Automatic annotation (TrEMBL):
The organism of origin for this protein: Stenotrophomonas nitritireducens
Cross-referenced InterPro entries: PHA_gran_rgn (IPR013433)
One Pfam match: PHA_gran_rgn
Taxon lineage: Bacteria, Pseudomonadati, Pseudomonadota, Gammaproteobacteria, Lysobacterales
Protein name: Polyhydroxyalkanoic acid synthase
Origin: domain of life: Bacteria
Length: 91
């Protein structure tokens, strides 16, 4: 298994950050076919081979994910895509 742990700072309001995270989740669903659900201020996402969460923190978001054996080989691509979308949506 392989772990992704990304922290991304932003200057958005909580409401705007939540909307941006929802857009990130839509991108993850489109690109990686994950299921996503909100639990309070955390957005959990999962599919076969990946289980993760996007946590809303004061002035930042944190993406944590555990990749299964097959997706571990694609860790760099998955991590890069998450960072790209976070930068695009959260600034």
């Amino acid at each position: 298994m392989s772990t992704i742990d990304i922290r991304h700072a932003h200057t958005l309001s909580d409401e705007s950050a939540r909307e941006a995270i929802a857009e990130v989740a839509r991108k993850l669903q489109e690109r990686f076919d994950v299921n996503a659900r909100w639990e309070g201020t955390n957005l959990h996402f999962a599919r076969s081979g990946v289980d993760g969460v996007i946590e809303m923190l004061p002035g930042a978001v944190r993406v944590k994910a555990e990749l299964g054996f097959l997706l571990s080989a694609m860790k760099g691509m998955v991590e890069s895509e998450i960072q790209r979308v976070l930068a695009e949506k959260l600034g």
